[in-house]
TrEMBL record:
Keywords per UniProt: NAD, Oxidoreductase, Tricarboxylic acid cycle
Residues binding substrate, per UniProt: 92, 98, 131, 162
Stated name of the protein: Malate dehydrogenase
Biological source species: Nanchangia anserum
InterPro entries documented for this protein: L-lactate/malate_DH, Lactate/malate_DH_C, Lactate/malate_DH_N, Lactate_DH/Glyco_Ohase_4_C, Malate_DH_type2, NAD(P)-bd_dom_sf
Length: 327
């Protein structure tokens, strides 16, 4: 059996946390031969609820669970952390301006980035789920100058999985029949789910669905799925978000299948005209614990225009964060 790794989950007492922790402890995220030690980080008011979750984790008697600890102090929660899942965030409440939301989250992700910088293991991998995820990841990375920026990623996997599911339903196939899906951008209504390179059972997806379906149904359905879930459930996506977080980390740690890729938002190096540093969803392959952007794809004018529009909106959010003095 391997040595246990430390996985820190913030917002552990929340809805996503409740679905996520059990999947991690079961081995779904890092493999059925990898023991995990879980560090749960919460705000002081939610520590009691996190204790309840920890009791249940212990009661599940997972063979791979090497221990659970609960903290309300990021410095301690990230000590020796190998995998950080940053789920806890300040939600937007009624009447809250965007600047207030950014400031509140800057106050969370800045200090957590610093705590990671000063206390995490050298091989730390971070996934930011808490919204606005891409901007929060940017802030955390900027607060951790000693950690390579690439180790801070934001979650686009839920959008990617939603896109797979929609295309599979439309083409009467299974998600496992689909390869090379992409969701460009950030986890917002501006994102661009793109089937240009996708195949279904080896056939180009663009030959199986028409453009009107893509423009009028597929893209808006994927991009606005979060709102549709809230409308139907009366609560935001939780289990699917947790599942996507597990998938994201699993791909990063254990690799993507030969001939396929996934969508990861990491800091841009200027690929596809995306401003450098912007945490932006792009097609990536993973191997040996690293992810690499798939370069050299010939993008249509339409895709390029969508990327330019979306990148501009994402950059505007970063500019606002800078203006607010959060970095
Ligand atoms: P909940 O409100 O159920 O849980 C959030 C938890 O975070 C709470 O228990 C709260 O006490 C805790 N928390 C707040 N500040 C904290 C801090 N500074 N340190 C540690 N914990 C803290 O929300 P939930 O439904 O679990 O969603 C969590 C986040 O995921 C939200 O920001 C949400 O918008 C975001 N999502 C992101 C998605 C994505 O694809 N990137 C999709 C799903 C989800 O909407």
């Amino acid at each position: 059996m391997k040595k246990p790794v430390t996985v820190t989950v913030t917002g552990a007492a929340g809805n996503i946390g409740y679905a996520l922790l059990f999947r991690i402890a079961s081995g779904s995220m890092l493999g059925e031969d990898q023991p995990v030690k879980l560090n749960l980080l919460e705000i002081p008011q939610a520590v009691k609820a996190a204790e309840g979750t920890a009791m249940e984790l212990n009661d599940a008697a997972f063979p791979l669970l090497a221990g659970v600890d609960i903290y309300d102090d990021a410095t301690k929660a990230f000590a020796g952390c190998n995998y950080g899942l940053l789920v806890g965030a300040r939600p937007r409440t009624k009447g809250m301006e965007r600047a207030d939301l950014l400031a509140a989250n800057g106050g969370i992700f800045g200090p957590q980035g610093k705590a990671i910088n000063d206390n995490a293991a050298d091989d730390i991998k971070v996934l930011v789920v808490g919204n606005p995820a891409n901007t929060n990841a940017f802030i955390a990375a900027a607060s951790a100058p000693d950690v390579p920026a690439e180790r801070f990623t934001a979650m686009m996997r839920l959008d990617h999985n939603r896109a797979l599911s929609q295309l599979a339903q439309k083409t009467d196939s299974q998600v496992t029949d689909i390869e090379k899906m992409i969701v460009w951008g950030n986890h917002s209504a501006d994102q661009y789910p793109d089937v240009s390179f996708a195949t279904v059972n080896g056939k180009p997806a663009v030959d199986l669905v028409d453009e009107a379906w893509l423009d009028d149904y597929f893209v808006p359905t994927v991009a606005k799925r979060g709102a549709a879930i809230i409308e139907a459930r009366g609560a935001s996506s939780a289990a699917s978000a947790a599942s996507a977080a597990v998938d994201h980390m699993r791909s990063w740690a254990l690799g993507t299948p030969e001939g396929d890729w996934t969508t990861i938002a990491g800091p841009s190096h200027g690929e596809y005209g995306v401003p450098e540093g912007l945490v932006y969803g792009m097609p990536c392959t993973c191997a040996n614990g690293e992810y690499t952007v798939v370069e050299g794809l010939e993008l249509s004018d339409k895709t390029q225009a969508q990327i330019a529009k979306n990148a501009q909106a994402a950059q505007a959010e970063i500019d606002e964060v800078k203006k607010l003095g959060l970095l």
